[in-house]
Amino acid sequence: GNVGFGRAMNLLMKESFGAGHELFLTANPDGEYHHAFFVEIINLHLKNPIAVIEGEQFPEEHPKFYSPKTFETDWASGCAMLLPRKVYEEVGGFDDSIFMYMEDVDLSIRVRAAGFDILHS
């Protein structure tokens, strides 16, 4: 059955990080990636290895601010969120009690409270 986005991503993150991977990319099952997406998000990750990084959405981005100079933003969308192992180990994953919508905002609040940056690629 449908366990919800956050819980499903948590199950996958636990398996992925448990297998020794250093990064996890959340994704909506109905999304597609621009041909330059992976190059851009990994390049930003290499410059900011313990930041959570969200991929830009197209054709419409969420209505929120991000700095074109520092790439900082208040929260990262779970549609395409790159999460480093270090952040996951300190903050955990999504709140399993949130079935759908706003679980990414909740996680972002906890990420920022733990002192990690959130960037927009």
Walk me through this protein's architecture.
The protein is an alpha+beta fold and 121 residues long. The protein has helices at 5-18, 37-47, 85-91, 103-113, and strands spanning 23-27, 52-54, 80-84, 118-120. A four-stranded mixed beta sheet has the order 1-3-2-4, with helices on both faces. The chain is globular. The N and C termini lie far apart (33 Å). The model has no long low-confidence stretch (mean pLDDT 94).
Strand content bin: 5-15%
Give helix and strand order, one letter per element, not per position: HEHEEHHE
Helix-and-strand structural type: alpha+beta
How are the strands of the largest sheet arranged?
1-3-2-4
Q: Tell me roughly what share of residues is in helical segments.
A: 25-40%
The counted number of beta strands is 4
Mean pLDDT: 94
Morphology: globular
**How many angstroms separate the termini?**
33 Å
Radius of gyration: 13 Å
Q: Helical element count?
A: 4
Task: Flag low-confidence runs.
Answer: none
Q: Specify the biggest β-sheet.
A: 4 strands, mixed
